[in-house]
User: What shape does this take?
Amino acid sequence: MNFDFSDDQKFLRDEARKFLEAQCTSAHVREVLDDDSKSHNEGVWKQIIEMGWLGAAIPEEYGGLGLGMLELCVIAEELGRVLAPVPFGSSAYFFAEALKLAGSEDQKQALLPKVADGSLVGCIAISEGPGEIKAGNIATRLKDGSITGKKIPVTDGDIASHAIVLVKDGSGESLVIVDLNESGVSREPIKTLEPTRSHATISFDGAKAELLGEAGNGMALLDQINDRAAVLIAFEQLGGASRCLEMANAYAKERVAFGRAIGGNQAIKHKLADMYVKNEVARSNAYYGAWALSSNAAELPEAAAAARVAASEAFWFASKENIQTHGGMGFTWEVDCHLFYRRAKLLSVQAGSPAVWKEKLVSALEAKND
Amino acid sequence: MDFNDTAEEAEFRAEAQAFLSQHLNAKTPGALRSGGREDFLARAKAWQKTKAEGGFAQITWPKEMGGRGGTVMQQVIWGQEEAKFDAPTGPFAIGLGMCVPTVIAFGSDEHKKRYVQKALMGEEVWCQLFSEPAAGSDVAGLKTKAVKDGDEWVINGQKVWTSGAHYSDFGILLVRTDPNVPKHKGLTMFIVDMKQQGVDVRPIHQASGGSEFNEVYFTDVRIPDSDRLGEPGMGWKVALVTLMNERLAVGGSPGPDWKEIMDYARSAGTLSDQAFRAKLADWYVAAQGYKLTKFRTQTALSRGETPGPENAIGKIINANHLQDICNSAIEMQDHFGLIVDKDEAPSDAIFQESFMWAPGLRIAGGTDEILKNIIAERVLGLPQDVRVDKDKTFAEMN
Assistant: This one.
């Protein structure tokens, strides 16, 4: 039994934490928050690129570091702890993993090295309206190698140079790769609950598109991409949830009311104990997801869903109760609590809401039992 | 990251499996309890003897105490394998898990010679006499008193919630020997012969209908001073060692979980209900979270680290979800869900039975509230609860 990260992976985590605590502080996050014209923190992004983290799980033959998925999980947790205001997940969890999964040899050779060296920022464009994304309600059309339609919102859609887009064609739904700097593409930034991560509306009007994987296989492929991204996002959520508990814990020890630290009151103690229990449940499920992801286990769909459901619940609970523990201070713009509350919501609806993942989980359990 | 045993662990597991399958039947629901309480105790004693003779009783104990001199990880593996069989272990869990280790830690050489081997071989059963009617979560507030009379102590008072007192031969007994000091400082621990005069064991009729626990009354019970464990007034320290050993005890599943209710919902045709499916996902994630947290603990144990507070997590999650799952299953059966007759009720009435047992699970071994305090104080380092009796003598407070 070795249900833990290796010493090398823990070393990577410690180094990443040290770096991010110094170079990606709340002030760096707030530079993006307070300036509508900023889509991300360029300084932080540049340093992350230089360290090669984007290529952590990209094989060396495609210009990556060739480490592995567990290493990418470790990095994801640390990025989540500091609310990194960079398009890392869009490029590394979605775009690169989709290419690794379904890209042709030519596509991998052309695009993966650019993801790894940061010269290409990728994103995924699937949403067109409220509610779960389902086969049959996709309006964006692929015809004769070009697409027409509108995707909203697209996380990092205004920073990215390439997008994977879910489209409808003669054979059903398909995924395509689009160069966003080519003609037929227009984008508009859109305001969201989470201003430290940029979002855009992308309109396609006869934009050139290249199939990713087989035509008509879009929904199945998207499921697989989401399973992989879900585990990585779960680690980001876990990092954020852990930070919320640390913040609430520190404040509960320091803030005095009625002649004693508020953390001496059971109402606060039990709230923090509940956070701890949810975070541990999330951590254990995330580790299982990491194992399934890194070993290409058949259990990946249910492991990813469980990781995602547990992490969404943990981060949501920790972020709201962190504000509550801080009292009035927690509701001010100056204190960071709301940044975590915002990020918790972004991460819980990206790649499918908790309700979607709960349904995926139960379906997987049903299928297993038949 | 992997779930496989190391070579040494695999070797031990194979050895344990071979021994178990040679002596026991694979688990079949209900088989263990058929034949009544007396028969169960006899089978438990016989299995304990077999285990001891085979070198699998008390794996972490040193060899000179009759143990195996093995690792905590081996104990965990043994627990996992033994749980796959109909192993009647219940009557010895408290004695060998908590009481006898306390005797080993604080008893004299005579005590060890007299008690350890007989307990290990299943010849004598032990119970733990700490809780009292007015001292549950606040154990140190207990009132049963011992007064010194020559070379003996005279005990008067009442204990409660004593598991297995009705079939126990000996117990470890925590009593007040000095009321004129703060409550934690006036306690002393003794070994008590449960079959002697003045010890009156009365079963408690529980809300669930069963009687696993007892009240124990002490009327002028005499204990020789030589059966004292630790110095007079040091009883709390001794008790903490007993309670710490409780943490190492590996608990089994408390009752029906997500799998049972999913199976039931499928057979009842209600598995397609969206609200139910969302709850089912939550139960699965929590159960899986606890199971995987134990794997993380085992990893730490295999590296020689000490176990953390994960048992507190497990009890908070499992007991609550058990209650919730049973409640849902009964509501799914609508009016019919009231029936507890095993011949009529679905799934042999396991949901109804556990529904009545679940409230007790949330209390026994530390209430949810006490366990949350433990997490808050010991893991998160938050300030202790206000204790107004801390600096006052026990007599002043009572």
User: Anything to note?
Assistant: Chain B touches chain A through 52 residues (CB under 8 Å). The longest strand of chain B covers residues 214-224.
